[in-house]
Design goal:
The complex is a heterodimer of chains A (326) and B (374).
Chain A: E1 2-4, H1 6-20, E2 24-28, H2 44-48, E3 53-55, H3 60-72, E4 76-80, H4 91-98, H5 101-104, E5 114-119, H6 134-138, E6 144-146, H7 151-163, E7 168-173, E8 182-184, E9 197-200, E10 205-209, H8 213-226, E11 231-235, E12 238-240, H9 244-254, E13 257-261, H10 269-281, E14 290-293, H11 302-308, H12 312-323
Helix pairs in contact in A: 1-7, 3-4, 8-12, 9-10
Chain B: E1 2-5, E2 15-21, E3 28-29, E4 34-39, E5 44-48, E6 53-58, E7 65-67, E8 71-76, E9 104-105, H1 119-127, H2 146-155, H3 173-188, E10 191-199, H4 209-223, E11 229-232, E12 237-240, E13 246-248, E14 250-251, E15 256-257, E16 260-261, H5 269-284, E17 298-301, E18 321-325, E19 329-335, E20 338-352, H6 358-372
Parallel strand pairs in B: 13-17, 17-18
Antiparallel strand pairs in B: 1-8, 2-4, 2-7, 3-6, 4-5, 6-8, 10-20, 11-12, 13-16, 14-15, 18-20, 19-20
Helix pairs in contact in B: 1-2, 4-6
């Protein structure tokens, strides 16, 4: 069993599924010869040839449109966008076509495409390489939004996303691409979509997060444990559809909830979770739901980046505020 | 795994031919160790190893032509590809192990769920320092309401003084009975108190005032029986009595005792005095029997023996009246155009206005005063 990084897990899942299913096609800018901007598709061209691993022009709208066309005609395209900030030219194809084909054709066609893109800050890159605009896709009916936070979940959830008969936006936390290694069995086993993963169990507070923020959240929880505060950590993993049952079950136990996300505060996915908590779990809440998020600004350049990304300290402070409510 | 792509061995050469491999699959090689002899259009060169590690695959055999930039040798270097190529930005890399812990798909098995309470109930409980888990919920779906918190606090002894130090004692005995009776009276009775002084200037100085007050009450009740009665507010019935059973308030450290002088109308002054003394002794010795504490048709509270002038004495249901008597004092009295010094005793009569009219009460008080003044 090999210990691999998150980006290697993406590579492994792509490779496994391309081997298992000849309909799986990988396309994107520099994905073939160069192996992708982060090397997520490294070696696929050699293994599967130029008909299944396609370097495209620098035209994201075309990448998405090509993928939609392939998907409705029976292929399983996995399209890569180099950064989340580059996905905007493809929004029309994703929202107006990929997300709607099943509905538009009254179920005759489905659109089994995966749109992969690295997202999030923390890699000292220009600002359009750093954003977390997952809420845009979560807000769009017809799209599944999946965010892994560990090598094992990147592997299992990407396999599940490729096998899913409907479009998936698969957001890979670039900050975690090579941050740590984990043993991942390359057995082709998918993890379930549409369900949260509980990473830590605790009684005092529930921390709800996803993607790269899982890293800071787990670090904060370890410090909180030293103070005697026992925290449950939920990795949402699939942001749409949202597995509110798991979050509510946890909050019914702890009575307190801190939502941690890197995206800006206003209308972030945390707002939706907080709203549902209040609608469905108000009477279990000992304290108002809290959000620890990025700010309502453009992600700053490298020097200030660390002030933008929610820190362990901010998470711990939020938990302390909630613990004041008996 | 690392793939070594055939570099350009000259200046702009598109390909090269393998002449001889110096290594085979499985060999461990060092950096700069010669791996292969390659023949190009210009020369024969040895290619040194760019990595240390094990040879996993040789992508060609002797005499094969390899294009520049194509995979040439695959190494197992014990680490994954670190080629950063055209990567924008800087990825944090480490040898850290990702610790997922015991991952649970979905929710953890929940133990007991937390208390469910309305937000207002939580705020109230926090302000009042009430543990919500002890509060009995009566709201929908087992929800604790603010009312439930209030009810819980009312049931707690001395909750109001919780921030003060001091010993809490739960009431028992007569003190407990007093608390209950007074609260019952406050809930049920509609009391009105009228006050007046009786001029006792002409009484002999050594008069037995308590006995005289009892006699006055007996005399007043004969003319105005409405105050010597019981009243049941639930069924709106009153019962007037010929017998006069006078409750006599006796203060002790233990609390307030009200032994009842039964059939007071049939007793002489001497008999009244004796029974008063007997009761006082019995109460102090705590030997008064429960039946002696029941059945009063009217009550006398002679608090003036301690201090105080007027009061609003509290009726003990089912009786409808209580007479309070304050401390007697000398006053200036205008009499036939002259100011004279006289002695008065202040009286306070509380009656239950549900059962007694103002006329009945004032007539009764007037009769008491008339008797006292002789």
């Amino acid at each position: 069993m090999a210990e691999i990084t998150l980006v290697e897990a993406v590579n492994q899942a792509l490779s496994f599924e391309m081997q298992a299913n000849p309909d799986v096609i990988v396309l994107g800018e520099d994905v073939a010869k160069d192996g992708g901007v982060f090397r997520a598709t490294l070696g696929l061209l050699d293994k599967f040839g130029p008909e299944r691993v396609l370097d495209t022009p620098l035209a994201e709208s075309m990448i998405a449109g090509l993928a939609v066309g392939m998907a409705v005609q029976g292929l399983k395209p996995v399209a890569e966008f180099q950064f989340m900030g580059f996905i905007y030219p493809a929004i029309d194809q994703i929202i107006n076509h990929a997300a709607r084909l099943r509905n538009r054709t009254r179920g005759r066609l489905s659109c089994p495409v995966v749109f992969r893109t690295p997202f999030g800050a923390g890699i000292h890159a220009p600002e359009h390489h750093s954003e977390s605009t997952e809420a845009m896709f979560v807000h769009t009916p017809g799209i599944r939004v999946v965010v892994p936070s560990s090598p094992a979940r990147a592997y299992g959830l990407l396999l599940a996303s490729i096998r899913d008969p409907d479009p998936v936006v698969f957001l890979e936390p670039s900050r975690l691409y090579r941050f740590a290694k984990q043993e991942v069995v390359n057995d082709g086993k998918a993890l379930p979509l549409d369900v949260c993963f509980t990473l830590r169990q605790g009684d005092d507070v529930t921390l709800v997060t996803w993607g790269a923020m899982v890293k800071e959240t787990l670090a904060a929880v370890s410090l909180l444990n030293d103070e005697g505060i026992s925290a449950e950590v939920i990795d949402v993993a699939t942001l749409k559809p949202l597995d509110m049952d798991t979050i509510l079950a946890s909050v019914e136990k702890t009575g307190r909830c801190v939502i941690v996300h890197e995206a800006p505060l206003s209308c972030g996915v945390g707002a939706e979770i907080a709203a549902q908590l209040v609608e469905k779990g108000l009477f279990s809440l000992k304290a108002p739901p809290a959000r620890v998020t990025g700010f309502d600004t453009i992600v700053p350049y490298a020097k200030l980046e660390k002030y933008y990304i929610p820190s362990e300290k901010r998470i711990i402070e939020a938990v302390h505020r909630l613990m004041e409510f008996a | 795994m690392k793939i070594f792509y055939l570099p350009d061995l000259g200046e702009g050469l598109a390909e090269a031919e393998i002449r001889e491999w110096y290594v085979k699959v499985g060999d461990e090689v060092k950096v700069d160790q010669p791996l292969v002899s390659m023949e190009t259009a210009k020369a024969v060169v040895d290619v040194p190893s760019p990595y240390a590690g094990k040879i996993v695959e040789l992508h060609g055999k002797a005499n094969d032509i390899i294009k520049t930039g194509k995979p040439f040798i695959t190494f197992d270097t014990g680490e994954m590809v670190q080629d950063k190529g055209s990567v924008v930005g800087k990825l944090e890399t480490s040898e850290n192990k990702w610790d997922d812990g015991q991952v649970i798909i979905g929710a953890a098995k929940t133990k007991a769920t937390a208390v469910k309470a309305m937000p207002a109930a939580r705020v109230l409980a926090q302000q009042m320092n009430v543990d919500l888990s002890l509060v009995l919920p009566t709201g929908p779906q087992g929800l604790i309401t603010p009312q439930d918190v209030k009810k819980y606090m009312e049931q707690q002894p001395s909750h109001a003084s919780s921030s003060l130090t001091g010993e809490t004692e739960s009431l028992h005995g007569v003190r407990r009975v007093m608390a209950q009776t007074m609260a019952q009276s406050h809930r049920e009775v509609v009391p009105v108190t009228i006050i007046e002084d009786a001029d006792i200037t002409d009484l002999p100085p050594k008069s037995d005032m308590t006995v005289r007050l009892l006699k006055a009450m007996i005399a007043a009740a004969k003319d105005e029986p409405a105050l010597n009665a019981w009243f049941d507010g639930k069924i709106l019935e009153r019962k007037l009595f010929k017998e006069i059973h006078i409750g006599l308030a006796v203060d002790t450290e233990e609390g307030l005792f009200v032994p009842v002088i039964k059939n007071a109308q049939s007793l002489s002054e001497q008999e009244l005095r004796k029974i008063i003394d007997d009761y006082k002794n019995a109460v102090r010795a705590r030997k008064v029997s429960p039946k002696d504490l029941q059945g009063a048709t009217i009550t006398l509270s002679n608090f003036g023996m301690i201090a105080g002038r007027y009061a609003t004495p509290i009726i003990v249901p089912p009786a409808v009246a209580i007479l309070g008597c304050g401390r007697s004092r000398d006053i200036a009295i205008p009499r036939q155009g002259q100011i004279v010094v006289g002695r008065t005793i202040p009286l306070s009569l509380t009656f239950d206005h549900r059962a007694v009219t103002g006329g009945e009460a004032t007539r009764y008080l007037g009769n008491v005063i008339k008797y006292l003044q002789g």
